[in-house]
Structure formats: structure tokens, C-alpha cells
């Protein structure tokens, strides 16, 4: 097998395994047995080890000395720290974006907000979750893109990877509730208004508060599911 094919297998293994960990197919603390992974993904040990090593670096998997790998645990203390870090960083990025962003930046935010608010025909609840999540991420990414700092955006991406398991618990509680979605739409509309007004203190504070609203919802879900 050539080098490119091996790299592609490693990337595929990484994305599949990461997706399953985030979605709770593999639960916190569960041992990731190589035999089971080979059977599930139809891949050899090489690509799977490569994927596991990358997920260890992202704190989604823990390497156990001489005994393989486990899914990283989840905790309320990690939840609080990750969300606080994200909220503080997102507020900073928004401040920079308002200072540096131009007309094209504003137009992109409006376009993504419109797409997120639109009701779309979906075939299943899971598809609804995926569509809303993709559009929600695109909306928030459009907002911070105006900061014009690739290095800060890379830090943001790393935090996003670490928070995804917790975020998925919140998504399941939110996307399937019309009332919760309506509250989110209201928050998004108010946030866009503050951003377009170029009101830096108000917009940054609103962003921080907006990003912290999932924490009590996730806390309750973790306690209910025995994850905390």
C-alpha cells in the first residue's frame, strides 16, 4: 500500500472514531479494544493506532501503560473549565472582530444567521441535529472570522474539539425541543443586533453569557445519565 493510501486510512479512522466517541457510541472510561475497533471500522492496527494517538493528543482518549486505550472520562469540573475558557476566548475574538471586520464580515454573519433560522425539511431527528449543528457552528465561525488572527482561531478550534462530547449532550436536549430552539433564535437575533451596532462591551458580554447557557443543561444531562 502506498503512503497516500495509508495516510487516508489513518485520517478515516481518526474521523470515524472521534465521531463515535463524541456521539457516545463509546462511553467515558470504556476500554477501546483493538479487536473490536478492527471489526467495526474494517481497518488494520496501523491506522487505528495512528487515530488513537491523535485522539490522545486531543484528550478524548487516554493511553494506559501496556494496556491499550480508554475513552477519556468526563467530569463536571472539566465541563465548567472548558466552557469558561471558550466563553472568555469567544468574547475576546468577538471584540477583535468588531474592531477589524468590514462590510463583507457583516454580510456573512447575516447570511449564516438567516440560514440557521430557516426551517428545513429533514428525514429524521438525527439529520435535524446534524443540520442545525452544522449551521450553528457556521454562524459562530462567521462571527469570529473577523478577528483576522489565524493563531487565535487555531486555539479556538482546539477548545472546540475538547468540548464536543459535552456539547453533544446539550444539542440533544436543545435541537429536539421547539421551546429551546426558540430561545436560541432569540439569543442569536439579539447577538447579531449588538454586533452590527458595533457595541463592543455589550456584544462581548452577550457572547460570553450565550456560550455559558448550555452548562446547567449539560450538568443535568450528565447527572441523569450517570456521567457525573
UniProtKB/TrEMBL annotation:
Keywords: DNA-binding, Transcription, Transcription regulation
One MF annotation (Gene Ontology) recorded for this entry: DNA binding
Domain of life according to the entry: Bacteria
Residue span, HTH gntR-type domain: 7-74
Signal peptide segment: none
Membrane-spanning intervals of the chain: none
UniProt-listed NCBIfam families: PRK11534.1
UniProt name for this protein: DNA-binding transcriptional regulator CsiR
Native species: Halomonas pelophila
Lineage: Bacteria, Pseudomonadati, Pseudomonadota, Gammaproteobacteria, Oceanospirillales
